[in-house]
Structures are given as structure tokens and as C-alpha cells.
């Protein structure tokens, strides 16, 4: 396999044959072909959260897909149900709850690090966030953390929301935050920088339904010019917005806390507008 088109065709053919939903109905194989081409015919370690079947059947279509397309890959699958019936030479499954940070850390200590981690598990907001914050550090430099079906962040059945999407702490919010994380060394404020985890990520690729976070081979360097630029810009930023710093930091820590404040502000503004429009208002 020498190019992306060939890998895409191979992923599609094998995915259809084994009934993998990465191909039908999601069509994620196109994006995997773009990012996983360099892994063809090379040994690497892949961890996938969520084996499938939901306890009623073995599942394992994704594990089969990876094993057939990448013959030198060492593949690990995590699930809350026993999927050991799927274990074979290069495929091993483990009972681990992706929402349990302690269990994830214990697993990584025994079996990590990994070249690729794919979250195709419960799709619940808290589980996805726990796995992301716990496992992204186990990805080797140049490797990928992949988040599938992140659109569940918008759906209440997975503890997400469309209405509160800009306030609720979700995987989608952290995908957006990843731009700031990639640019940590270009931020001026140390308190703001301290709120951002140092994941060592240098690339973010977002497609419909699936996102790829690529770990950097080295720390992303700062683009802040030398001389007095840093001090001057920090001073200017604080002059313009410093009086709101506490609110900004509080919002960054927990956006939901600001819903009540925004609603209170809205009522205050509405009351002012109503008094202005009132026929009996005093003239100045």
C-alpha cells in the first residue's frame, strides 16, 4: 500500500466485510486513511476504547479491521464487558471502565505507551473527558488520540446539550480548547496558561464525527517576539481587560457558573430598557 487512496480502499473493503460502523454508516475510513498511512507495514501499538456488542454479543469489528489492515500492529481493546473470546495473537482485550481514571492509569502502567488511542466507547460526556485527560499523555510523540462520534456532546441522552453547548464541559469544548493548548507558549497570562493542560499536542484535525489530536515530536516553540514585546503586550492586555480577569478565569474553570450571572444581567438590562421606554420617565 503506497498511497492514501489504496489505504482508503483497503479500509473500506475490510470494514464492510467485517461489519465495522467506522465504514458504514460513518465513513470515517476516509479520514483514517489520511492519518494512518505511515503506519502501514510498520509495527505499532493501538488502543481502542469500546469493543462493541454492548455485552450482548462479542462485537470486535474495529479490532478485526485494524488487525487485517495493519498486520504488524499490536492491538488492545478496552470494554466494560468480557470480550476475551476475541483475543488472538496480536489482539488482546481487557475489562476496564473508561470512566475510571485509576483503572485507566493502572492499565497504561502495564501496557502503555501507545502510538494510537481511539475512543469509540460509551460516548458519554464524562467518560470521554476522563479518557481524554487520562490517556492523551500515554500517546507517544508523533502519535494520535482519536475521538469518535464527538457529536454526542450535543445530545442530552449522552449528558450533552445543544442549548448549553458553550457552557457545558464537553469533548467538543475541549476540541476547541485544543487550539489554545497547542498555542500555550504564545499565551501572555500565566494564570490563563495554568488552566490549560500541557498535552504536548501540535495538531488538531476535525472532521464530521471524528477528530484527531496529534502529539508533537517536540514542544511547540513560542512565537512571541523578543525585546520588550512580551511585557508591553501583557501590560496592554491587562489595561484593557484586567478588571475582568477574575470573571474570565472563573468562566474558564467552569462556564456553567456564569449562566445565572448572565440571566441576572439580562433581567437588569431588560428592567433598564423598560424604565427608559416608560411614559413616566423623568427628563434630563
Would you kindly provide a written description of the structure presented here, covering whatever features stand out?
The protein has a seven-stranded mixed beta sheet, sandwiched between helices. The protein has helices at 4-18, 29-36, 61-69, 101-111, 125-135, 171-182, 190-194, 229-241, 245-253, 258-277, and strands spanning 44-49, 73-79, 91-95, 114-119, 139-148, 201-207, 210-215. It has two domains: 4-215, Rossmann fold; 229-277, no CATH class. Helix 1 (4-18) packs across helix 2. With 284 residues, it is an alpha/beta fold. The radius of gyration is 23 Å and the shape is globular. It has ten helices and seven strands.
Provide a quick synopsis of the model.
It contains 10 helices and 7 strands. It is α/β, with parallel strands linked by helices. The chain has 2 domains: 4-215, Vaccinia Virus protein VP39 (Rossmann fold, 3-Layer(aba) Sandwich), CATH 3.40.50.150; 229-277, no CATH class.
